[in-house]
Specification:
alpha+beta, six-stranded antiparallel barrel, 3 helices, 21 strands, 36% helix, 34% strand, rod-shaped
Length: 416
């Protein structure tokens, strides 16, 4: 018969308990380890990323803006008279001279007023000629009366002198001599009176003629003014250049002040750039600029900064100092770059797609193990293509400059 050994069952139970404890402990450790493991980093194709290395050295600060070429001088031609557009003799882009007729207007009321003014002037001129003829005839008659009075005075004087000689021989009585003297004195006084009268009449005649001449001049001036108004219905360029705008059509009625045309001098152009308001604060007059016309780059300098911003941009005028390339014309689209300052010794990197001046952003720094970790970077001054690095990166670090917003939820990525 089998003899049961004491303690064997107990040892088996203890051994099972130990095995179970070991298994449970291992499972718990594995679970705890798995819970502490970081999630796997997402993989990003390195070929699709734009990266840059942090450098130290000189850095050029500049700003960039789009714009157009505009004439330095242009002439706005408004309507100086009300009228109806009867004829347009030019087209946009035509080269015009100061006396080139651009548009012909009509104004029946104005044209009738010129006819009336001309008739009034001609009537006044005829009246002047008639008055001058009458007064000239009157003056001739008065001059004839002077000659008659002169003859009478001379005759009376000679008779007095003759009787005075005869009186010496006693051939003429004292009474006759006295009468002859009185006649001579009377005739002389009469001559003076006639002369004075003629002088007064001559002055009156001159005054009458002057008054009518003044009226004729006034009517002539009024006629010339109205004729000039009619002549203004033929709208001329007024300056040599190229016709830029012609915003009217045949049959359109225009009033005084309506824009009819714009003429620009094509040989003198400037660049009109629109700079982002956030970048325009450092722009100053006289700063160096370069204008890319896509057919050559022209040097220039800032000559005007608009004091007000429009739709988030500031208008900046750049005077062109170089020779214009072929094809340069008003309204040509251009790219402009304005040099702000040259920094001698700074830490910098190529500008990320979303980097702004004096901002703190997160960039992915590339590690030797082909991973990239998120790093907080404090930026300083910026230019078109570069940005100053104040904190967060060291010279030689490589960072991802592409837009990584789709990975905002992770702090590291693996580069494939």
């Amino acid at each position: 018969m089998d003899i049961q050994r004491q303690g064997v069952a107990r040892k088996k139970r203890i051994r099972r308990a130990i095995y179970l404890f070991v298994v449970l402990t291992a499972a718990a450790g594995a679970t705890y380890g798995l819970s502490k493991m970081k999630p796997a980093a997402p993989t990003v194709e390195a070929a699709t990323l734009w990266t840059g290395k942090v450098k130290r050295g000189p850095m050029l600060r500049d700003v960039h803006g789009l714009g157009v070429l505009v004439p330095e001088e242009s002439r706005i031609i408004p309507a100086s008279r009300d009228g109806l557009v009867e004829e347009i003799r030019v087209r946009i882009g035509d080269v015009v001279q100061p006396d080139t007729i651009l548009i012909v207007l009509s104004n029946a009321e104005l044209e009738q007023s010129v006819i009336d003014a001309e008739l009034s002037y001609q009537a006044a001129a005829s009246d002047l000629a008639n008055t001058r003829a009458k007064l000239q005839s009157q003056l001739i008659n008065e001059q004839s009366s002077i000659r008659k009075a002169e003859a009478d005075a001379e005759r009376a004087r000679l008779q007095f002198e003759a009787k005075q000689e005869l009186a010496k021989d006693g051939l003429v009585s004292e009474l006759d001599l006295r009468l002859a003297r009185m006649e001579a004195e009377h005739s002389a006084k009469q001559l003076d009176t006639v002369r004075q009268q003629v002088d007064v009449n001559a002055q009156s005649i001159a005054a009458q003629i002057a008054a009518q001449e003044t009226r004729v001049k006034q009517l002539l001036a009024a006629y010339e003014v109205k004729k000039g108004h009619v002549d203004q219905l033929k709208v001329r360029a007024g300056a040599a250049g190229v016709l830029q705008q012609l915003p009217v059509q045949v049959g359109q009625r225009v009033s005084v002040g309506t824009l009819l045309a714009k003429v620009a001098e094509p040989g003198r152009l400037k660049a009109e750039l629109k700079i982002a308001e956030t970048q325009a604060k450092d722009i100053a007059l006289g700063q160096v600029a370069s204008i890319d016309t896509r057919n050559g780059i022209i040097p220039g300098r800032v000559v005007r900064i608009d004091p007000a911003a429009t739709e988030g941009t500031v208008k900046v005028d750049v005077q062109l100092d170089g020779e214009l390339p072929r094809g340069a014309r008003p309204d040509l689209s251009v790219d402009g770059t304005i040099e702000i300052e040259r920094l001698t010794d700074v830490v910098y990197v190529e500008r990320p797609t979303y980097g702004q001046a004096d901002a703190t952003i997160s960039l992915f720094k590339v590690l030797p193990n082909r991973e990239a970790t998120r790093t907080q970077v404090k930026l300083g001054r910026v230019s078109v293509n570069l940005v100053e690095v104040l904190e967060g990166l060291q010279v030689g670090d490589e960072v991802i400059l592409s837009d990584m917003s789709q990975w905002d939820s992770v702090d590291r990525v693996r580069l494939n």
